[in-house]
Amino acid sequence: MDFLDYLENKAHCSVNTRNQRLAALKSFSSYVIRTNPEYIDNFNQILNIKVKRTETKIVPYLTTEGIKLLLSAPNIHSHNGLRDTAILSLMYESGCRVQELIDLKVEDLFFQNTDVVRLHGKGNKIRLVPISRNCSNIIKKYINISSKNLESNNFLFTNHSKKQFTRAGIAYLLNKYEKIARKQDPTLFTVKVHPHVLRHSKAMHLLENGVNLIYIRDFLGHESVTTTEIYAKCNPELKRKYLSQNSKLIEEDLVEYNRNEKDELLKWLKHNIL
């Protein structure tokens, strides 16, 4: 407990960091109990330490109007502008992580009846994600004008040095186009836009359109639907929609009492309660 207090009060670590360290200590404690049961009383005390509650963070995301404005910011008539449009479009359409994007190779795209991108996620897990026809057309156009430098085993997106993008490079591009879009309509950019915001935005928009959380979990590559549930908890528009629907049901079920029924109810209340 002194160690956990030190992390928070002297090392100025966040509550999340404190809880992560505690999780590591609990994992070690479980191991010791299995291998050296004579210490069970000591290490059970560690297992009984409760994690500290943290405030639920608001998930930052853009509206569909904000996404449209952001995607229109690059100049698609230049090679780099078309590349950047393809990057932003694919990040939003597939809901991919930054590392998944920069690891993409040309051979990971499948243009068929349903256009699909193959993403290599955490733990070397692979998932196939469908993309819209508009997004695939942008990518096809980018591949066509870059065909001299692209082979099937090449990275799909490269920087000005013809090398694989870095996470910082993608963040720089996004920041560049956010500034352009923000100047046109600052009301659509009330959150700080970073690469993961596009992933959050896609999840929120799927949820708002009635897509089941199970499908969104698989789409995003989450291990558990519990991780995906944060989008349902943090979406005010979704809450408003469901509250509105339920209020209509309540109004439809309201039954007006006639005068005799009201008098009988008042008599019963006076007799049994007053």
Automatic annotation (TrEMBL):
Q: Which Pfam families match?
A: Phage_integrase
Q: Report the residue ranges that make up the Core-binding (CB) domain in this protein.
A: 1-33
Looking up SUPFAM superfamilies in the UniProt record yields: DNA breaking-rejoining enzymes
Q: Where is the Tyr recombinase domain?
A: 57-244
What does the UniProt keyword field contain?
DNA recombination, DNA-binding
InterPro entries, from UniProt?
Answer: CB, DNA_brk_join_enz, Integrase-like_cat_sf, Integrase_catalytic, Integrase_recombinase_N, Tyrosine_recombinase_XerCD
Q: Which family does it belong to?
A: Belongs to the 'phage' integrase family.
- For this entry, the protein name equals Tyrosine-type recombinase/integrase
Q: Which organism is it from?
A: Massilimicrobiota timonensis
Task: Cite the source lineage.
Answer: Bacteria, Bacillati, Bacillota, Erysipelotrichia, Erysipelotrichales
